[in-house]
Amino acid sequence: MSTSTTTAPPSTSPAVNSRARVIVASLIGTSIEFYDFYAYATAAVLVFPTLFFANADPTVALLSSFAVFGVAFIARPVGSIVFGHFGDRIGRKNTLIASLLTMGIGTFLIGCLPAATVPGWHVTAPTILVILRFAQGFGLGGEWSGAALLATENAPANKRAIYGTFPQLGAPIGFMIANGLFLILNLTMSAAAFASWGWRIPFLGSAILVIIGLYARFRLIETPAFTAVKEAGQVSKLPLGRVFRTSWRQVILGTFIMLATYTLFYLMTTFTLTYGTTASTAATAAKAAGKPFSAAAFVPGLGYTRTQFLLMLIVGVAFFGIFTLVSGPLAERFGRRKMLMAVTAGILVFGFLFVPLFSAGFAGAQGLLILGFILMGLTFGPMGAILPELFPANVRYTGSAISYNVSSILGAAVAPFIAVALWGAAHGSTVLVGVYLSAMALITLVALFLSRETRDVDYSANLS
């Protein structure tokens, strides 16, 4: 792309992406990423159990829907290896474009998929849904890391953590767009119409966001760090082999540093929606309908309507966005490691508040969502800086992508599934769900304790 450097002397610094361009290109990609995933997560709770697993017991149908939700997380490490390879071989820009296209096409096609209740699609529809979820996860495997590198490798000195919050802000924005759209649809159409075709609109509408994202990314120029790697002749021929040969310890630490964040993230967005919208009279209704009943299959929830609880979630996510932005300056001032250790200790304590807050009526439930999303913003924001900073520039895309996405399996893919199982095992209490979150936070605390501070690493010249 042309720049305004034609009249500059030979010693002028290479052209770089403007701050506005970096913000838009990194933010739009992760906003689409989380929009896509929230759209599925919301549909997985609200309509997919009956559309694609209608012949199953209600709890089995819900667990099946969450299992398909987890398929994308299994695909993410595969995508991280493939897109990480090209991100460290050919550059950040083109790899980001390819990952966005892969993810966007998968999401759009989910909106075109017939339900399993359509004759001839009983087996085919769930099978294709699994394939499309895999495609979503495969594309996502390269999306986050590329966006984080785009932001931090273009950041001025002493502002990497601040710039690193740009892609992270896509999470609350994507949530707001996806769930806001579901909320509007829920308010403007009947339940029958929503279950029949209205649920497709968020998936089909993702095409608009993908087009905007592609436009922003085509206008980028390559990051200074990757340009320096090429000029030094240090481009890795096989980044995957090199990262495990030179940075295997950082891969392990990065994976577990992200663990508590992922677990909290999906408990707050997916499990709470299930718990909040499950009626406490489910067992009575099941008996009245003549369906089999067991305490493990039907457990009491809060009993809010979908509209009520989506509004409660949106209020909580507003705090998520605010504290994501707050986290950047804090991570610059106190260092990534020290700040994250304090926040992770807070997450550990928060796990023991599930029962008392969920038992305290509307104020308690809303307070739990707000507190959980505040912690989410504070822990998620610095990840855009700390994970890439763990790795040398010539394997940074691969290393940070593998850590981020392997952690997605350990902390996110199984989180809704385990939470529902623990909820049932405790006969309706969320005590075990909170203990599960606290245990994951403890593992992250150990990983942070074993890691080093990365605030002052030489980000561009650091090579393996």
UniProtKB/TrEMBL annotation:
<protein>
    <submittedName>
        <fullName>Metabolite-proton symporter</fullName>
    </submittedName>
</protein>
<feature type="transmembrane region" description="Helical">
    <location>
        <begin position="37"/>
        <end position="54"/>
    </location>
</feature>
<feature type="transmembrane region" description="Helical">
    <location>
        <begin position="368"/>
        <end position="390"/>
    </location>
</feature>
<feature type="transmembrane region" description="Helical">
    <location>
        <begin position="197"/>
        <end position="216"/>
    </location>
</feature>
<keyword id="KW-0813">Transport</keyword>
<dbReference type="GO" id="GO:0022857">
    <property type="term" value="F:transmembrane transporter activity"/>
</dbReference>
<keyword id="KW-1003">Cell membrane</keyword>
<feature type="transmembrane region" description="Helical">
    <location>
        <begin position="309"/>
        <end position="328"/>
    </location>
</feature>
<feature type="transmembrane region" description="Helical">
    <location>
        <begin position="128"/>
        <end position="150"/>
    </location>
</feature>
<dbReference type="InterPro" id="IPR020846">
    <property type="entry name" value="MFS_dom"/>
</dbReference>
<keyword id="KW-1133">Transmembrane helix</keyword>
<feature type="transmembrane region" description="Helical">
    <location>
        <begin position="60"/>
        <end position="83"/>
    </location>
</feature>
<keyword id="KW-0472">Membrane</keyword>
<dbReference type="InterPro" id="IPR036259">
    <property type="entry name" value="MFS_trans_sf"/>
</dbReference>
<dbReference type="InterPro" id="IPR005828">
    <property type="entry name" value="MFS_sugar_transport-like"/>
</dbReference>
<feature type="transmembrane region" description="Helical">
    <location>
        <begin position="402"/>
        <end position="425"/>
    </location>
</feature>
<feature type="domain" description="Major facilitator superfamily (MFS) profile">
    <location>
        <begin position="22"/>
        <end position="455"/>
    </location>
</feature>
<dbReference type="Pfam" id="PF00083">
    <property type="entry name" value="Sugar_tr"/>
</dbReference>
<feature type="transmembrane region" description="Helical">
    <location>
        <begin position="162"/>
        <end position="185"/>
    </location>
</feature>
<dbReference type="InterPro" id="IPR005829">
    <property type="entry name" value="Sugar_transporter_CS"/>
</dbReference>
<keyword id="KW-0812">Transmembrane</keyword>
<feature type="transmembrane region" description="Helical">
    <location>
        <begin position="431"/>
        <end position="450"/>
    </location>
</feature>
<feature type="transmembrane region" description="Helical">
    <location>
        <begin position="340"/>
        <end position="362"/>
    </location>
</feature>
<dbReference type="GO" id="GO:0005886">
    <property type="term" value="C:plasma membrane"/>
</dbReference>
<feature type="transmembrane region" description="Helical">
    <location>
        <begin position="251"/>
        <end position="268"/>
    </location>
</feature>
<feature type="transmembrane region" description="Helical">
    <location>
        <begin position="95"/>
        <end position="116"/>
    </location>
</feature>
